[in-house]
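In response to the reviewer comment on reproducibility (Comment 2.3), we provide here a single inverse folding case reported in full, input and output, so that an independent group could reproduce the run without further information from us. The structure tokens appear first.
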């Protein structure tokens, strides 16, 4: 199998529900989640209630029942614990996203949060959010509906950029996520895997 064929499978695993790829996908997804669990700070409901300090960053919200991952959701916030409390409180509302989470079995007891990275700069947070959404992208598990926030900006302050997962090495697999400015005079491209300001946050 050549690199392009391998890359096509990676894309399919993340974006399609192909029966023959489901077991591969599950194995891949549990590997990522377990890796992140071992590396990042895990927050459960009891901690959310107590913590009053303001921490800004990117997080992973996930629901786990009987050691099975039910769903994941990546987000960012200027005040992580406030956002965590909002998510838990919203589980009892009729908002679409939370109705879906509840229908999958989510409750305050089985919802957990991993702090993926601390970051006070909003634009860096938005780009890092995209970086993690691509890593955790899944038709089976992930509930994120957007890959990149419209608020994320290039160096010239243009918003509404586009994003794409690419393999940058023809002979082997080297994944990169690129964010591109839509402004015709600007067209700045930011490689999220090579961007200096984000390097320290790489997993
Ligand atoms: Zn631009």
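Designed residues, in position order:
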């Amino acid at each position: 199998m050549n690199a392009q064929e391998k890359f096509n499978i990676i894309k399919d695993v993340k974006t399609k529900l192909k029966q023959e790829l489901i077991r591969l996908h599950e194995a891949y997804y549990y590997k990522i989640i377990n890796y992140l669990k071992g590396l990042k700070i895990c927050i459960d409901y009891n901690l959310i209630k107590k913590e009053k300090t303001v921490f800004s960053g990117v997080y992973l919200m996930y629901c786990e029942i009987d050691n099975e991952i039910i769903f994941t959701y990546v987000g960012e916030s200027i005040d992580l614990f406030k956002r965590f409390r909002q998510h838990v409180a919203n589980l009892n509302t009729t908002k679409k996203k939370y109705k879906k989470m509840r229908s999958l079995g989510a409750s305050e007891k089985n919802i957990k949060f991993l702090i993926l990275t601390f970051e006070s700069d909003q634009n860096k947070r938005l780009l890092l959010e995209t970086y993690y959404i691509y890593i955790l992208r899944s038709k089976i598990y992930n509930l994120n509906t957007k890959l990149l926030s419209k608020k994320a900006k290039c160096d010239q302050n243009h918003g509404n950029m586009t994003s794409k997962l690419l393999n940058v090495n023809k002979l082997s697999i080297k994944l990169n996520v690129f964010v591109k400015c839509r402004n015709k005079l600007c067209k700045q491209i930011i490689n999220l895997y090579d961007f200096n300001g984000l390097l320290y946050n790489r997993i």
